[in-house]
Amino acid sequence: MKKFAFAVTAVSGVAALATHHDAEASTQHTVKNGESLWTIADQYGASVEELKSSNNISGNMIFPGQVITVNGSQSAGGSGSQATATSGSTYTVKNGDSLAVIAQQNGVTVDQLMKSNNLQGYIIYPGQTLNIAGGSGANTSTVPTNNNNTQPTQGGNQSFNDQNLYDWGQCTYYVFDRRGQAGSSISTYWGDAKYWAGAAQADGYRVDNAPAVGAIMQSTAGQYGHVSYVESVKADGSLLVSEMNYNTPPGVQDYRTIPASEVYNYSYIH
């Protein structure tokens, strides 16, 4: 009887240790308005695929109030998305990156990036590792041209009918409504503007550096980034965009001209 009691105690101790280990290895996160899988992954230093696998999520949609399990021991605020080129050989894609931006930062051309990584198109994803061959650090990047400056094609046959959950009067709030007015709906769960390119790519939208009427122009500059709606592409290559909360207070629509020399500094969500 004493031997049996010892065995039970030993097994119980192992189970307790395992339970304690599991508790340390996962965190519960309750989704808030405006959050997306990408913002949550960035917050905890995890990947989108890890979040989807841990929570049996097949798509990319999450909802306010939903509880997400975050596996791993990373603390909030740690992010793998801050990785950059290592010894000029590899680069880890961050939210909002594009091939043109990465090429410019690492002194290579878009064609070189595509060949080095066997890419058939311009779509890349946050967390993806790219090989950088022959980088010099100089600004020698080239940008793919766009032969279709008409209405955008929404990739992946996505169709959203979400209500606008972005903060009222912000650039994201305005662009969500403006795209809806144009008949090209987008998700209300892409988070801050700086995350939109990566989130849109994962939702099946085409994202590149080629502007087109109806596309969303995205910048990752600043704390939150910024998005605008492309109203027209002019003959001289400049753009007319509409937006909120750039040169005006929240809730006030404004228009701005983007010079042709600056057009390819942005990402465009089609």
From TrEMBL:
Composition bias type Low complexity, residue spans: 139-159
Every Peptidase C51 domain range: 146-270
Region feature Disordered, mapped onto this chain: 139-160
Enzyme class: hydrolase
SUPFAM superfamilies in alphabetical order: Cysteine proteinases (SSF54001), LysM domain (SSF54106)
Single GO molecular function: N-acetylmuramoyl-L-alanine amidase activity
Pfam families per record: CHAP, LysM
Keywords for this protein: Cell wall biogenesis/degradation, Hydrolase, Signal
Signal peptide (UniProt feature, chain positions): none
InterPro entries in UniProt: CHAP_dom (IPR007921), LysM (IPR018392), LysM_dom_sf (IPR036779), Papain-like_cys_pep_sf (IPR038765)
Keyword Thylakoid tagged: no
Residue span, LysM domain: 27-70, 89-132
CDD domains membership: LysM
Example of a GO biological process term: cell wall organization
Keyword Hydrolase applies: yes
Enzyme Commission code: 3.5.1.28
Organism superkingdom: Bacteria
Protein name, entry field: Secretory antigen SsaA
Organism: Mammaliicoccus stepanovicii
Lineage: Bacteria, Bacillati, Bacillota, Bacilli, Bacillales
